[in-house]
Amino acid sequence: MREPIPSAALAMRVAAACASGAAYAAAQPGLGAWPLAFVCLVPLLLACRGAPLGQRVLLGWLAGSVATAIATLDAGSAGASSYFGLSRPAALAVALAVGQLFGAGSFALSALLAGDPARGSPLAAASRLAAAWAVAELARCTLFTGFPWLLLAYALLPVPELAQLASLAGAVGVSAALAFVNAGFAGLLAPGEATRQRAAAGLAALAAVALVASCEGARGAGGGGVEVAADGRGEAALRVLLVQHAPPVARRSAPVDVVPALERLRALTRSEPDFDLAVWSENALPALLPENAHLLRGALPEGGAPRALLLGAARADPARPGALHTSAFLADASGELLGPHDKVRLLPFAERAPWPLSASQLGIVPITPGAEPRVLTWRGIGFGPLLCYEVLFAGLARQLARSGAGILVNLSNDTWFGSSGAAEQHLAAAMYRAIETRRPLLRATHGGISAGLDASGRVVARLPRDVPGTLALDVEPGAGVTPYARLGDAPLFALAVAILLAGALRPHASSARPSPSNAPVPGSGIGTTTVSSNISASRPKSWPRNTTRTMPSSRSMPRKLSIQSSMCTAPTVADSSSTSPAP
Questions:
Q1: Domain span at residue 53?
Q2: Residue 384 maps to which CATH number?
Q3: What is the DSSP letter of 356?
């Protein structure tokens, strides 16, 4: 039975968990202290050493609560307030609830699965943490519709060179590698033998070197390039114009005047005469398509080579009366539509009502999800649309790449989040989709962040936020299928489960083998548990080899026993003839 933890020690553990949560949030895009991603979990791991299971889970939950509160509370409450028109207290409550479910819950689950960081070798402890972190993030991507926001790997947005492992193991694989490095540094700082500290230091250094070495090893997979448009361009390059029209932020239920919005989009698009494809953001055209396709006539400059427009708009499904989709279309200069791609992953509470709520209770118009992602093809190039929230889900990007998409296009509207760090965090998810599939990724948004990313996840160019403008890029489509695009998260999940099972079974296997310290006392029929003491458990020299001797009665036993360890149950006691020295 564990001794009660002094209140001062418990307070130190709580403070350490809060420090980990604050460091995790500071490492994320928005605050941008990305080097903290390699050490942000260290205080939490040190706090969990020797703590009982329930306390470790609570410490993990506390760290996750602090992390999500700092990194997402402002953005989440701003989005809930501007989109739904909620009061500030109600918007804060919604943001806190989402953070608890997907952020704090993920931290708590990893603490539950990883076990005591003090158990086993530094390599075993680091491996368990990496595996537990991978399982927790995969659960976060899947359960309760999934919401893979603010993953540990997203901290590497400013340094995509360190995230190239994602083409092999995805963003969650990069998160697991970062967790492994954190565990190595925690082992270095933990009290213990010098050999353990040296091993932990070696593990941390080895993991860091392996993470960096993965950059070049995973980089070349047939990825396409992105460059800022210049006077000359390669034969294979497609000149793409990203249009950011920066309309004023309005509540979701507020009516939108189609004419001013369309005129602004047309003026920006026609201001650049040299391009092949223009890209407008999600729901840029506030009108139903294809019924209003005539509004697109005149959006593209006249003359020159054929041009096309890729845009987002709502679509009424003629085959299903009453069904409404959020869609992406390709349109030529005459307004003829190609496509559409209907949004597959719908945003809970905004586009669909999660059980047990209804759309009428939430005051929303329910959107019908598409059956599967669809590649839109023009001039022999496949475009893979990811509408807003869809860019969070690696499975959609993998499917588009396998289906022939050479360029990924993320149409979004992040203006609901105001000036918070949410737009940068959304961009980090887009970076990983580019690396995972080795495809260039283009983002066109209402008011930012509109940007072009190459197949290694590097942000080649971006437009300022909340300012109307255009960005012309020369893009070469990607080709080939990366290991991650082909296999997904299944290999990582299987490896993580195997590591966790091995870690769970190891204590049982070791306890089943008898050792000299817990062997039965000869002739007594009484066994013992493992004891750390200075009392000799060996057979006295005076005992014959092939005879038995009974234990002395309680009255003849020594009145005082000097035990070095505070953990002692049923110790083996030598008789009065034993010559064991006193401590």
A1: 9-219+489-506
A2: 3.60.110.10
A3: T
Whether the per-residue pLDDT at 508 is higher than 60: the answer is: no
- Three-state DSSP class for 376? strand
Same domain, 435 and 502: no
Distance of CA 256 to the CA centre of its chain: 35
Same-domain check for residues 28 and 72: yes
Are 286 and 215 within one domain?
no
CB atoms within 10 A of CB 365: 11
pLDDT band for position 534 (cuts 50, 70, 90): very low
In a domain, 545, yes or no: no
DSSP assignment of 218-245: HH-SS---EEE--S---TT-EEEEEEE-
Indicate the residue type of 456: S
pLDDT tens by residue, 131-189:
999 999 999 888 877 788 889 999 999 999 889 989 999 999 999 999 999 998 888 88
Q: What is the DSSP secondary-structure string of 512-578?
A: TS--GGGSPPTTT--------SSS--SPPTTS-TT---PPPPTTTS-S----S-S--SS-----TT-
Q: Quick check: is 347 in a domain?
A: yes
Integer angstrom CA distances of residue 398 from 107, 117, 149, 221, 488: 27, 35, 18, 14, 8
Return the pLDDT at 337.
Answer: 87
For the stretch 218-243, pLDDT in tens is 455 455 788 887 766 666 689 999 99
Residue 475 is given by DSSP the state: E
Say if CB 573 and CB 553 are below 8 A apart.
no
Closest alpha carbon to 248 in 370, 416, 64, 363 = 416
Measured CA to CA, the distance from residue 189 to residue 200 in angstroms comes to 9
Residue type, 469: G
Taking a C-beta distance cutoff of 8 angstroms, is the pair 461, 451 a contact?
yes
Q: Rounded to whole angstroms, how far apart are CA atoms 499 and 131? A: 7
Q: Look up the pTM and report it.
A: 0.80
Mean pLDDT on 449-461: 93
What separation in angstroms does the CA of 461 have from each of 269, 418, 469, 550?
18, 21, 13, 85
Residue 251's closest CA among 364, 419, 390, 90?
A: 364
Identify the CA nearest to 375 among candidates 366, 367, 385. Answer: 385
| Average pLDDT estimate for 111-123 | 89
Q: What is the mean pLDDT of residues 212-217?
A: 56
